[in-house]
Amino acid sequence: MKIIDILNSKTRPFPSFELVPPLKGSDINKLYKSIEPLMEFKPPFLNITYHRDEVEFRQKGDGTFEKVTVNKRPGSVAIAAAIMKRFQVEVVPHLICGGASKYKLENDLIDLNFLDIQNVVALRGDAIPGQKYFSPEPDGHKYSCQLVEQIHNMNRGKYLDETLTDAIATNFCIGVAGYPEKHYEAPNPEMDIAHLKKKVEAGADYIVTQMFFDNQRFFRFVEKCREAGITVPIIPGLKPISTQTHIELLPRAFSIDLPEELMKEVRKCKNNEAIYQAGIEWCTMQSKELLAQGASAIHYYTMGKADNIRKILTAVF
User: What is the pTM (predicted TM-score) of this model?
Assistant: First the structure.
């Protein structure tokens, strides 16, 4: 079932989750164990992140270094197939422009279509370590709106090979990312929303936001989107903080702010156990306020952990 149809048909708000694939060589059962505690809340869909190849320089026996391309996690297609086999839930793989040609992306989409997966999230991806700016592959996409357009074209039976005749149209529902605190590369929030509108005009069906910790930022973001003529559903994305490291890492990694009220609570904490509990309480508060203001769904970034998310859901849904 398409995510847009789920959003339009559900009469009660629901949670959804984003999962990180296990490291290559790891046991898939670890991923299953992180999903199982959440299934009692009947999420209609699960998102699966995609991680592009990384470049490492490894020292050889003679002391010189060689450049090695490393894929540290399995691809979205394999993980999606494994989850579908184990659980009765819609799976939403992420597709990213970074590190992929448009031809590879088309092949991935064909594979997903053969698996009868009808939902994808189209993302640009970040620059790889060592790159100052995002750089697409020579025959890849520079912007996520171009990937959205490619998927939309396939939904109309238009593939990259223009010699194909009677090509079967795919049936993908397309999700894209939105940034309540603006994308770190955007010069201002207005331009960021203009870029988001291009993704919707290219064929996106709904928006899932980057994590945020101040609901007022989300409410203003939605208001500005509607003023700009963006009418598709916007799903808020939340993540509970759980360690002191999160306080230091999340603002840098995702270009987001942590509200002063949250920081006041964190400063009272004497250890990570207390921060963990404060994170649960703050995310629970956020969730309840979002639902009270009419959110039809909330998307939770689990980062492979289920216990704190489960406690939040127990208090909210």
Answer: 0.91
